[in-house]
Write a structure and sequence with these properties.
about 325 residues; globular; 10 helices; 11-stranded antiparallel β-sheet
């Protein structure tokens, strides 16, 4: 379905995304949005959590088309702003995005090509479709329970460790998201030690296992272009759960290119499951396990993941 022309439109822009290059282009971005979509109110984020607060306030004020400009983390925050106390603030609201961040993984599932301004121009012919969201309940780094939504992928183990490294990085990000993730993935893999947790998927899988990474996937890509779940579909009401059991550093590094190509799923050390609910708890005596959602860290096991079918209307 085509976008309604009379919608009130709101853009949330993260000026720090893209190595702060987005902030330097604020005027051009605003002009491009207005040239494509007509009248639109734009607000910039100032720090963590701002996109969630700005989107929630915009929906309360009657805006019904929200456009997020930034990286995967900005998209994640914006989507969380669509909901309050577990319920949608405005069930008729529509979400769009144009990527300008360091990763840009969610767009790859939809084969969105081109730069930021090409993506903005493409919004002029966008059509709406329902997509699923993931919901994760987890322990934050202070040990407190928390719940967040995710649009693309949540994961834990090596991937959670890498996200912590990337989010602390300064120099590597200047070379772009794919380089930053690949560099820190290699560094983390060199010191890889297995994690242990009990994993359950619906009522079909229940196992205590050693692993390097477990990814709970709504979209197909994470980590700056790794095709971790080549068959995932963000509108089928199911997660693709990818378990990588390889824990030897050299073997993990050697197979990293397979993950970028999506060929790792043919490896006997990789298990792919499908399901609606996933729970992960630490095995007795196991060391802490970091987790991430859409490239945002600050999460640790235990955690549970639920699919919310058709919970968001996406215009792309």
């Amino acid at each position: 379905m085509a976008l309604a022309g009379a919608m009130r439109r709101f853009a949330v822009i993260n000026p720090a995304s893209g190595g702060r290059r987005t902030g330097a282009m604020m005027g051009q971005i605003g002009a491009a949005l207005e040239g494509t979509l007509g009248s639109i109110y734009a607000a910039r984020t100032e720090g963590p959590g701002d996109a969630t607060r700005l989107v929630a306030r915009a929906l309360d004020e009657g805006y019904r088309h929200i456009v997020a400009i930034g990286g995967d983390g900005t998209l994640n925050e914006a989507v969380n702003g669509f909901f309050r106390a577990g319920a949608p603030i405005a069930p008729d609201a529509v979400f769009s995005f144009a990527m300008s961040g360091s990763g840009g993984d969610f767009r790859r599932t939809f084969a969105v090509e081109g730069d930021l301004f090409a993506a903005i121009r493409a919004l002029g012919t966008a059509r709406t479709r329902p997509v699923d969201l993931g919901r994760v309940t987890f322990q934050d780094e202070e040990g407190e329970p928390a719940t967040r939504l995710f649009l693309n992928i949540a994961s834990f183990g090596l991937s959670g460790d890498v996200v912590e490294r990337v989010n602390r990085a300064r120099i590597a990000k200047w070379f772009g998201g794919p380089f930053a993730f690949k560099w820190h993935s290699t560094v983390a893999a060199l010191g890889l030690k297995p994690w242990r947790a009990r994993l359950t998927v619906d009522d079909t899988f229940d196992e205590e296992l050693e692993f390097s990474t477990v990814a709970v996937c709504n979209g197909r890509f994470f980590g700056g272009g790794m095709k971790i779940a080549p068959d995932a579909a963000p509108d089928d009401g199911l997660f693709d759960i990818v378990i990588i059991r390889e824990t030897k550093p050299r073997a993990m590094i050697a197979r990293m290119n397979d993950i970028y190509a999506g060929k790792h799923v043919d490896n006997p050390g990789v298990t792919v499951l499908r399901g609606r609910r996933v729970t992960a708890t630490l095995a007795p005596g196991a060391r802490p396990v970091y987790a991430e959602r859409d490239g945002e860290g600050g999460m640790m096991l235990p955690a549970s993941f639920d699919i919310l079918p058709g919970a968001l209307t996406l215009a792309i």
